[in-house]
Every structure is written in C-alpha cells, then in structure tokens.
Amino acid sequence: MSTSLLYQAFGIRGYRYVRTDYVEGAVFFTIKQDREKLRCSACGSSRVTAHGNEVRVFRLVPIGRKQTHLLFPISRVECHDCQLTRQVAVPFADPRRRHTHAFERYALELSKHMTIQDVAHHLGVGWDTIKDIQKRDLQLHFAKPKLKGLRRIAIDEIAVGGGHRYLTVVLDLQSGAVVFVGDGKGSEALKPFWKRLRASRARIEAVATDMSLAYINAVREHLPRAIHVFDHFHVIKLFNEKLSDFRRELYREATDQLQKEILKGTRWLLLKNPENLDPKRRERERLEEALRINPWQPCTT
Ligand SMILES: [Zn+2]
Predict the structure, then answer these.
(1) Where are the domains of the chain?
(2) DSSP letter at 99?
(3) Would you say 253 and 261 are in contact if contact means Cβ atoms under 8 Å apart?
C-alpha cells in the first residue's frame, strides 16, 4: 500500500498513507493529513493552528470480498483569518456519512443490477445504509432540477390535506417535469423559485397561470419580458362564472320588471273589499298574482 495506490484505488488524494491493519478479515487503512495541508473549511485560509483531532472510520469500496475501512484523524483547526475553530473539510465523504463517495458510487452502480438487500449483503452494511444512499442520490439529481433550460412554465397551486394546506407547483411545460414545489400559495410561496430562476439565467418565454392578481403581479415583476398566458381551464372557469353572474342578473332584472308590470295598477285592488272585485276585469286573478309574487300580507281591517 502506498499514497499513490490510495488515490488510484480509492480516489483519496492529498493524504499520507500511514499503515494497514487486518482485523477479523477486514482491512483498515490509516491515513493522515500533513500539517501544511490543513485549511480552514470556512474561508480556505492556510493560516491555521491545529487543536487536536477526531478519528473517524469510513467505509471504502471492498477489495474483492474483503471489507475495507479508512481510519482518518480529522484535525480541528483555529483560523487566524476568520477566527473560527472547526474541523477541516473532508473532500472524499459527505458530512456525517460513514462511507466515502467512491463507496456510494459503487453501491449505486450495484443497485442497478440487484436488490437493496443484495447490495447491502455484498457490501456488509445494513439495508438502511443502501436505502439512504439511494435516497440521497435521487434527491441530488431530482430535488433541485436545473432551471437553465426552462423556456415555458406553468404555475398553479394545489390543495393538500383536505384543503388545509397548499403547495405551489411550477411545471416545465415542455418536459412535464415539476421543477419547483413551494409551501403555501401566493407570491410568498414562489420567492425561492424566483431566486433560483435568476441564478440559473434561464430565459423564460412564456408563463401560464390562473388569473389571480398575485400571479399577475409576480410574473410582471419577475418575468417582465415573458408572455403571460392565462391557461385555458382557468379562462373557461372564469368565463363560466361571469356568465352565471350575468344570467342571474338578467333573471333578477326580468323578474323585477315582471313584478312591476303585474303590480302596476294592482295596488288599488288591495284596497277593495274582495266581494267588490270585478270578474270581468279579472281583478281577483290579478290580485292573487300580485300577492303570489309579493309575499307580504295586505292589511284587511
Ligand atoms: Zn477561516
């Protein structure tokens, strides 16, 4: 084993190989970081003072059927530039993970060909470790899709949990992919999306939303050059609502008018004694009609 083999076989570069131990059929490589290679993990400064270390063990890809581990004392350094004291960065593994990136890639590669249980068994780790590696890989590739290629989008909100909660969803209209899900609704829910969209420098040509003022204002503010399309469904919905209002209004006007016609010339009938109503002039029928559409009771005393 050598420093160069460490890099060639396990992708671990910039550390010094210390020694190899064999414990119960497993291999343990110990490496260390030279003092002059220590850097502040916050600002990258080399003006640091080491304050001890914490030995961590990482899983490496196996050598044949042999489990292989890496022992690495992670130095804690005090930075003279940003005054922070913290552990140096570990480039070959994710924070809080007990396996290297190479181990994760290997597990993912195997996952294409066998079940999680098989992969876990082959690598000598728990089922949940493989599950976790897969989950994080999916999140990495799908949780924050690249927005750069976005051209046409649709924004809408959906009610979840029986309407107690809302999610605002941004859709790539060309691929059909969901590119953003925001908590809540309205302009507040879209804030992180606008931020990411700006950073991506995507050139949005068209946006489809419903006709709410919140969306109209948001699109005007954040995508002033895009064409704002009110999508078909919402246009029809709004049109139908307006049409229903209009119909109701017409009906109300018509019935008002009808009532006025009937009432015209009937008021005085109310003052007549019923026995004096003239059957030739249909006075009784006209009074009854007037009473039917105006459910007030005449004073009969
Ligand atoms: Zn620093």
Answers:
(1) 1-92, 94-143, 152-230, 234-293
(2) B
(3) no
- CA dist 7 and 31 (Å) reads 12
Cα–ligand 1 centroid distance for 89 (angstroms) = 12
Residue 110, amino acid: L
CA of residue 78 to ligand 1 center, whole Å:
8
The model scores a pTM over 0.85 = no
CA 14 to ligand 1 centroid distance, Å: 20
Q: One digit per residue, pLDDT tens: the chain, 301 residues? A: 677 777 777 778 889 999 999 999 899 999 999 999 999 999 999 999 999 999 999 999 988 888 999 999 999 999 999 999 999 999 999 888 899 999 999 999 999 899 999 999 999 999 999 999 998 888 877 767 788 889 999 998 888 877 788 888 898 888 888 888 888 888 889 999 999 999 999 999 999 888 888 888 999 999 999 999 887 676 677 777 877 787 777 778 777 777 776 666 665 666 667 677 777 777 777 777 777 766 554 444 4
How far does the centroid of ligand 1 lie from the alpha carbon of residue 38, in Å? 11
- Alpha helices, DSSP H, located in the chain: 3-10, 101-111, 116-123, 127-138, 187-200, 213-222, 232-263, 267-271, 283-293
Residue 11 CA, distance from chain mean position: 34
Rounded to the nearest 5 degrees, what angle is found at the Cα of 136, between the Cα atoms of 134 and 142? 100
198 and 221 in contact (C-beta within 8 Å)? no
Give the number of residues written for the chain.
301
Q: Which residue is associated with the tokens 């809302």?
A: 166
CATH 3.30.420.10 fits 152-230, yes or no: yes
Enumerate the β-bridge partners of residue 54.
Answer: 74
What's the 189 CA to ligand 1 centre distance in angstroms? 35
Distance CA 95, CA 88 (A): 11
CA separation for the pair 27, 9 (Å, rounded)? 14
